[in-house]
Records
---
Amino acid sequence: MGSTAHKDQKGEADAMPFSVNTNSSALSTAQSLKRSDRDLQAIESRINTGRKINGAKDDGAIFALAQSLRADLSGFGVVQESMDLAIAVGEVSLAAVESISDLIIDMKEKALAAADPSLDDRSRAILNQDFIRLRDQVDKVVGNAAFNDLNLLNATTPALQPATDVKGGRNVDVPPYDIRLGGSDTDLIPSMVIDPLQDAKDSLTRLESALEQHTNIANVYGGRLRTLQTTREFAVKTSDVLQKNLGTLVDADLGREGARLQAAQTQQQLQVQSMSIANQLPTFALKLFGQ
């Protein structure tokens, strides 16, 4: 054993023992250096990832909560995509129904004119040609009312039931209709004409009924679309709130972490120097023996 000494305030000397076999100062400094290395690695990890919680080992409770929020956020993404598709199909269907309603109005005008008993046969025949042209456009509009191969107006697609929440709820549906000429949801038929006079009267009755039917269908689609859009907006706002909460839980304050990094690097450098000094202490024993 050897010792170094220093004087206290009373001028008395205190011995500081050291051993060539066990360098307690170096051991203590090494432990501090290891802690500094771990702290430095943790700070660098937070800076590199931008997160203060990167796994359960950082904080199990916070990590579990963050994972739950991430699952909900992922679910809201699916909900938005599901509703986006339903809204797109519904908007195409609504536009088609409104276009057919406009055709019905034009057809009704022709039928009303042709139903006049005083109208001569030649004029009625001309009106009938225009009427048939308008009538045949109905099926063309219906056939083009498809989005992503989904058509709600020709009896080929079942009701759309998009996801409306992350639990799989489907609280809003977009119903299908068959409004092709002769379809089950319209009084329009492919044989409808306005010549001769009696056919004009019959067609006028059908057109008045069909116009009411198509107006009701348009109202249904309009209401469902408003509901879907409101639900989607709520889902987007909820997703934004969850994203903000997730950031609060796991995102690192990069400004603060930068300051911690600089402090940790300085501390590590000082401990390296301390380690170097501590490792030199046993050599003092050699000097005691004149080595």
Note: The chain has a mean pLDDT of 84.
---
Amino acid sequence: MNVKRFTARTSRDALALVRQAFGDDAVVMSTRPCAEGVEVLAMAPESVLQLERVGVPAAEAPRPAAREARAATPRGEPRTEPRLDAKAAPRADASVEHDVEQLQMSTLSFQDYVRERMLKRRRTELAAQAGSGASQDIQILNTALGAELEAIAAYQLGAESKLLQKPVLDLAMTFQGHHKEHADVLAKTVEKLGGKPVLTKSRYNFPVDQLKSQADVLRFAAKLEQGAVSAYLGAVPLFGNRDLAKAAASILGDEAMHWAILRNALGEVPVPSAFMS
């Protein structure tokens, strides 16, 4: 960190030395009277950027004099405090103590300066992360919505196949109703987040020619439900919004029950293992 002390007979001369060493954007950290007249502690502007990168807490930074005059100046009124790039009018009666007092009232607080810069950068980063997280959530929701729309179409295909007997047909229609509710909630959530919900495809690549019996339709539906369970299981931890993750987990539970009931209808073990994958 490039910090130097400058001494001169007057504050104007000291600031001229600071400007000569660090430029007009130099940060004045403190001023005080000394044997030579006025001592100014200043640092190069790039040193502040270094502090921001390493995240130095504001409380650990040197405590310079506060620039209260700047904060107190009403908007629209010209500020009269001296600047490094301004030419101060010479004052024959100005003492060293007066010079120091003027600098203390007009010098930007180093602590406040660093804190303000770091908070601004953090707000920018958080805003970017929030935007990125919402975009990812929309993508996940639309993927889930696409799967729900496919399930709706699959159950419709089974109902129209004339292969399902009355009790099984009623069950299939109940499950289709669940998927319609899922799809409705997912589509509305995507819109609420500023996205565009995906639509039902004009055609799905279903194995129509392989559906010859009720068992074939049930096995086809069970495979879709199993795929939905795995998809939701992988999606839940990816949501940036934890409320969305909770809602997805709720849908996951419903899909898992569908799968178990369909397996049972096929005469298979409803829950084949202790864990889902």
Note: Residues 56-74, 80-93 have pLDDT under 50 and may be disordered.
---
Amino acid sequence: MVRLGNLDSPGALHHRTLRVARIMNTPAMVMLLVALATRQAPANPVFAELKPDQEWRKLGRSLWFDPAAKKLVMKAKVVLREGPLEHLVCSKGTKEHEAILATDAIPSQIHAGLLLTGLKPGRPVQFAPRFLPPRGDKVAITVRWRIDGKDHSSDAKDWVMEEVKKTPLAVDWVFAGSQLYRDETTKKMRYAADDGDLITVANFASAILDLPLASSASDAERNYAANPKTVPPVGTEVFVVFAPRTLAPTPKADSGTKTPP
């Protein structure tokens, strides 16, 4: 015979239910439940929608030129804050699984905007017949954002860390300039960066900005990862500000700012 245990009678079960209900309604229990709920569901940060300065000249979608400072300003959004990287910035709807930021700015207009700052393109990476790293003018990239009413600013290099050493990226991006090629289907010239490779940390011949060293895109050999200690939450809207490195001192990470880029 299988013993099912001591089953409560309907009366005993009713009294136990009343005792539990009285305990649940005590002030101490209410406070505990509120504390648990607060701990398990923290308040979401308030992301600010960034507005361009009135003095900036609009170049295209999510893209402005600051004529006074001779800087290019691009709006983007944080889409990843932890994990291996191939890009700092990719085009929206392309490679968000391996990029910190995504933007809907048009790649060719980004290239044109960089020229307005005085930057000169070099050439993209070459893989054959022998490897040659990307080259071009060094570019200072500053990221600015606002959360909970507080302004923040950081050198973009602090958002990227070397995977092994866990240290911030130590070299500047260069204006490689991507490349033009003839589309065999349409027979028209295309700008290679239109595929989404805007600012990379792994070498791509299509990248507008790349690192001037050998950096593999192979999953087993990736050198860089997002730094979750410095990258703000996913969904944060940011301004990415570009200038020649010689004209732009490196800001301290997460320093407050009251002025537009």
Note: The longest strand covers residues 138-147.
---
Amino acid sequence: MKRKLIAAVTGCLLTGVFATSAFSQAAPSRQQKQQNNAMSNIPTCAASLGTLSIVNGDDSRGWMQNNLAPPEKLLRVIIQRSGCFTLVDRAAGLNAATQERNLNANLGLQRGSNVGQGQVRAADYVLVAEVAAQDRDTSGNNAAATLGGILGGRAGTIAGGIQTRKLEAQTVLSLSNVRTTEMVAVTEGHSAKTDVNFGGGGFLGFAGAVGGGYESTDIGRIVTMAFIDAYSKMVPQVQALKGTIAAAEAPQRAFVVTRPLNMRRAPDSAAPVIRNLDPGMRVYPTGSKQDLWWEVADENDNIGWVLNTGLQPAG
């Protein structure tokens, strides 16, 4: 009898646990809804707009004041999920790749390794990520100031960046064309305390992939939302560019003359000479080619044909 009673009670408890679990799954929490909404704000693209490297801004106070890691890793996760750019690593991944390449140069890798010069992909754009810093009046004990803002305590406001009273964050993304150095886009992102839920657990479905305080702290979540806001404004601006990617509109790469050459009117050694080109002069291929002959323009806008055997890429 006693065993039957224990079994019945255990069955009721398990039924209650499963029913509670099913109910929780059927009714998403407010935090889950907000996280799903935030994820939906990350723009997505069917095709890459170009290659991109990410750089942390010069002023590190914006993230260090709040015990956050540099934003580069956060931006990598956001951009990778969007599919709008192809990321090229210029940080730890590049250092590791350089070490492998040095092994090839010093010790030699196995045949068929296919590691050598001319394989590193160039970045079309450089993205600089910044978090606006607090002024000196609100520096000091950040954790206490943040708690004061959350609990409604009195705290001074700031001119920009993270505000301890309302717990707000301001971020800036600056996108530059690597080849022309033109500033393609500058967008600002903003997020406030009311934009996120301050519950525990992983944030925005990153599942711990970001770290650095961006998922586990209130201010980190707010800065994350601000960066998503700035990125969602930047992508449409890049999409609206004529030619869609920087590489399509960039000037042709320069070449240096390595030996005396004749610039001719046609791709023929018997064609009239336009001018002589001396070693060290720069020319710019137009894209027209015939066998070993390239059509080029010099720095005085003379256009003619030269043998490419006397040219090498400019540094």
Note: Helices lie at 2-26, 30-40, 61-64, 72-82, 92-106, 142-151, 218-239, 246-249.
